[in-house]
Design goal:
Layout (H helix, E strand, L loop, with lengths): L2 E5 L5 E5 L3 H10 L3 H13 L3 H5 L3 H17 L5
Antiparallel strand pairs: 1-2
Helix pairs in contact: 1-2
């Protein structure tokens, strides 16, 4: 399975796995709000709690969003 490694400002490295159908399905079931879906997916794919993702600074969150978007683009789900 593909992974991306995202280095946070504090030096921690998070491994993000490529999303599977279950993660996307659960995110869409959880909420109709894009931000909630994104936080859920990032947490699931990095093996973190949603609260841990919510506590990140915006720069780190943006890097994680970019990695997620890259996976989704590779799968043909976003433009």
């Amino acid at each position: 399975m593909k992974e991306k490694i995202i280095k946070l400002e504090n030096g921690e490295e998070l491994k993000m796995s490529a999303p599977i159908v279950r993660v996307l399905k659960n995110a869409m079931t959880k909420s109709d709000k894009e931000m909630d879906q994104t936080i859920y997916m990032i947490a699931a794919l990095t093996n973190k709690q949603e609260s841990e993702i919510e506590d990140l600074n915006l720069k780190d969150f943006n890097e994680l969003q970019k990695a997620l978007k890259s996976f989704l683009e590779e799968a043909g789900l976003t433009a």
